[in-house]
Amino acid sequence: MWLTDTQKIGVGLSAFGFAMISLGVVLFFDAGLIAIGNILFLAGMSMIIGVQKTMFFFTRRDKLRGSFAFFAGFFLVLMKWSILGILIEAFGFLNLFGDFFPVVVNFLRHMPVIGRFLSLPGVSQVVDRLAGFQNQLPV
């Protein structure tokens, strides 16, 4: 699957947004950096999948709780309540994107160094539990 130039820019904006959010958290919850990171992440996401699909994603009935929490946390960060805002945003992010975690874990398990680490006996059990893998057979 090839990415268009717009989608490549979107991936860069999203990655830069995550970097800004991480830097804002490391620098004692700097509200400005976290807010810029949130804006870059949302802009990148809308460039990756398109504006209409982004709006549809955030307004889907099963994602409303996560969307509300994410945007409430974003608003709190803008109002300089960065610690509470980032916690509420994290809850919303997990509700919005929690379905993708098993896919991400499977992708990471096929990478050279990280895959070996994630396949270690103790680590794989913890990662499987956090990602939501089922231990039951489908029969």
Report on this structure.
The model has no long low-confidence stretch (mean pLDDT 92). The two termini are 33 Å apart. Helix content is 78%, strand content 0%. The radius of gyration is 17 Å and the shape is globular. With 139 residues, the chain is an all-alpha fold.
Characteristic key phrases:
single chain; 8 helices; globular; mainly alpha; 139 residues
Beta-strand residue fraction: under 5%
Order of helices and strands: HHHHHHHH
Q: End-to-end span in angstroms?
A: 33 Å
Name the overall outline.
globular
Q: What is the alpha-carbon Rg in Å? A: 17 Å
- The oligomeric status of these chains comes to single chain
The tally of strands reads 0
Query: What is the mean predicted local confidence, pLDDT?
Result: 92
- Helical amount among residues, as a percent range? over 70%
Unreliable stretches: none
In brief, what are we looking at here?
By secondary structure, the protein is an all-alpha fold.
List the helices and strands and how they pair.
Elements: H1 5-26, H2 31-49, H3 51-59, H4 64-78, H5 82-97, H6 101-109, H7 112-118, H8 121-131
